[in-house]
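Try this one yourself first.
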């Protein structure tokens, strides 16, 4: 008797955010599936559908198909559009924002489901569980893999011994980070991520000395944009590290660039 393939629905969600959808990353997230006991790679690469990222719901609107990874967001109550959290994430309908994998198993197998996303370097999330031949795990929200981190890039402008940095920081799902949504976002926008939850700073590491200049705090000046200027760096070449931290959610992002100060 031939055995039916097992089927598993898998989604990838940002930690404290939404499904990695169209606003998330330039490079499409993908899934690999591996047999932990034999090392066999059942699925080397399957792209997640990222046409949609789900809908944020107030805590009072729990549904059976929401992700169990709640969004613990506490923005200031500036309007009814932005109530305090936590929130549930209603996953996209149909085949959006996820992936259904078919696994032609002949016996119960301990499988690792591993998602790869980009921040912009590769970051990973995985779960390991037993799957048996013919098993169907297709109910929403599915197996939700949570990607931690913050998508961070940086640009530097050098003028003499003055250096200005502009860092772009977003949640892994692409959701907006801003200090005041009333300035930048339409009134019907889903809850934003408040900039005061994020510590963004730059470190200047001279290539010719172990001495590190004092860190520079970067301030949110626009949606997903943090900036700062240092006016008194000595001449030399520096490795610049930009570190972004959302401590309450254990999210960290990192970017680097190299500058030469004259």
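Now uncover the answer:
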């Amino acid at each position: 008797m031939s055995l039916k393939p097992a089927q598993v629905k898998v989604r990838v969600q940002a930690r404290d955010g939404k499904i990695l959808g169209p606003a998330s990353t330039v490079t499409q997230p993908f899934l690999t599936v591996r047999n932990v006991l034999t090392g066999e790679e059942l699925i080397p690469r399957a792209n997640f559908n990222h046409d949609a990222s789900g809908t944020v719901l107030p805590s009072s609107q729990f549904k059976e198909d929401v992700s169990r990874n709640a969004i613990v967001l506490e923005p200031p109550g500036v309007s009814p559009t932005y109530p305090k959290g936590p929130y549930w994430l209603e996953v996209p309908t149909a085949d959006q924002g996820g992936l259904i994998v078919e696994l032609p198993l002949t016996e119960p197998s301990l499988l690792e489901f591993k998602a790869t996303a980009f921040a912009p370097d590769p970051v990973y999330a995985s779960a390991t569980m037993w799957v048996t031949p013919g098993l169907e795990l297709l109910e929403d929200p599915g197996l939700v893999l949570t990607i931690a981190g913050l998508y961070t890039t940086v640009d530097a402008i050098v003028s003499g011994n003055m250096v200005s940095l502009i860092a772009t920081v977003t949640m892994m799902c692409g959701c907006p980070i801003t200090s005041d949504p009333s300035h930048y976002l339409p009134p019907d926008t889903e809850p934003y991520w408040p900039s005061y939850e994020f510590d963004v700073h730059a470190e200047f590491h001279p290539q010719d000395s172990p001495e590190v200049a004092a860190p520079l705090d970067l301030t949110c000046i626009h949606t997903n944009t943090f900036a700062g200027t240092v006016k008194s760096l000595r001449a030399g070449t520096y490795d610049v590290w930009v570190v972004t931290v959302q401590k309450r959610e254990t999210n960290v992002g990192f970017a680097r660039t190299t500058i030469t100060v004259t």
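Discussion: The chain has a mean pLDDT of 88. The helical segments are 181-184.
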